[in-house]
Amino acid sequence: MIKPDITKFNYQAIINFIKKFLSFFWKHLKVSSAIIFVVLPSIFIIFYIVVERTEFPIMEKSLSQNLVQTKNLDNRQKGAILVSSITSQLERELNSTLGWSANDIGPTKFLDNRNNRQKGVIYATKLLTQFFSTNIAKLGKGEEENPDLQAARDTYFVYQPSKYWFPSSERQYNLGIKKIFKYKKDLLAGKAVYNLRTDDVYKLLKFMTSENFLGEPLGRLNQHNEEQSFADLDDQIYYAQGVVLVVRDFVETLLALYPEYLTKGGQDNFKSALRDMRLIATFNPMVVLGGKHDSMLPDHRTKMNKYFFTLIERLNDIAESINR
Fold first, then answer.
1. pLDDT at residue number 122
2. Which of 190, 287, 178, 285 is nearest to 231 (CA)?
3. Residue 240 has pLDDT above 70, yes or no
4. Coil/strand/helix, residue 193
5. d(CA 266, CA 264)
6. Cβ(260)–Cβ(248) under 8 Å?
7. Among 321, 316, 295, residue whose Cα is nearest residue 198
8. Mean pLDDT of 16-30
């Protein structure tokens, strides 16, 4: 057997090839790294800034269009519009460009302002649906709940907002919205109940201002800054904003459908409450700061806290005026 002459093997050619390969790999690794860690995140941030809404001074057009002509509406039509105001913000979040991101595992997972706002939206949606189903969509305490409203509040809207699959939270919320739509359809056809009384409005306002409703995000805002990391300071602000967006749509709709409560509850109180809700709905500092004690830095959570406290006071005043 003839053995190869290894002394004639060109080691330098192999070394040169390895050097060229490593040079090529390193050059393209730097380009790939730049694309992955710089270019793509920059494109995503620019896209987010362009398409993402961060302030909500007025209710959604799809809802406000229903309130243009309210004088000739019958009781069933008013009920259909009022229940629509409960899910208006949830529908907007689900149908937005980035969709429901509170349960995402991709880049949108880090959009904590948006994600916390969505958590506040579903929290308020669930509570208002519960009140509507157990008080307004019934003729009396002894009557059973509407099955569609009950399913929405008991099965679909109670789903955790961060659940990604088996099933996903957005799937459950969309099913809940379909149940609300089914109730509206039956209501307009005379197959469902809508029975809003003055004492219901009083109980509704007292429920909104309770510790379990507006008091819950207020409690989050009242936490001392020392108890929160800097990265978490803004979470409570945008969660509270999400809650108020739902309340704002519902209260404005209620007022448009039943303007007589302006005289019962006092126009000034309503005006003040709506102003505070608008300030909360448009609260969007570039960076949320938590200036401590005599610091020169602002404390944004305290500002939001003030709006919340005044809002709760005004809604309580309206409730007491209606109850006289």
1. 98
2. 287
3. yes
4. coil
5. 6
6. no
7. 321
8. 68
Q: Positive or negative CA dihedral for 197, 179, 191, 147?
A: negative
Residue 24, classified by CB atoms within 10 Å of its CB into exposed (0-12), middle (13-18) or buried (19+), is exposed
Q: Where are the domains of the chain?
A: 1-51, 62-322
Angle at 317 between CA 57 and CA 136, to 5 degrees: 75
Residues facing 299 on adjacent strands: 290
Of 206, 216, 235, 255, the C-alpha closest to 85 is: 255
* Spatial distance between the Cα atoms of 304 and 319, rounded to a whole number of angstroms: 23
Looking at residue 39, the DSSP 8-state letter turns out to be I
Mean pLDDT of the chain: 86
Pairwise CA distance, residues 222 & 235, whole Å: 13
**CB 270, CB 318: distance < 8 Å:** yes
C-alpha–C-alpha distance, residues 61 and 267, integer Å: 24
Q: Encoding tokens for residue 16?
A: 């040169």
User: CA nearest 121: which of 223, 241, 226, 201?
Assistant: 241
* Pair of tokens at residue 124: 């308020």
Backbone conformation region of residue 86, classed left if phi is above 0, alpha if psi is from -120 to 50, else beta:
alpha
Query: Phi and psi (nearest 5°) for 289?
Result: -115, 155
Beta bridge partners of 290: 299
Rounded-to-integer distance, Cα 76 and Cα 61, Å? 21
Query: Which residues in the chain belong to E strands, given as ranges?
Result: none
168 dihedral zone (left: phi>0; alpha: psi -120 to 50; beta): beta
Q: Helices (DSSP H) in 10-74: which residue ranges? A: 11-34, 40-51, 61-64
CB 257 within 8 A of CB 70: yes
Residue 205's nearest CA partner among 126, 273, 304, 143 is 273
Q: What is the pTM of this model?
A: 0.85
User: Lowest mean pLDDT: which of 42-51, 166-175, 254-263, 292-301?
Assistant: 42-51
Tell me how far CA of residue 151 lies from CA of 159, 162, 213, in angstroms: 12, 20, 21
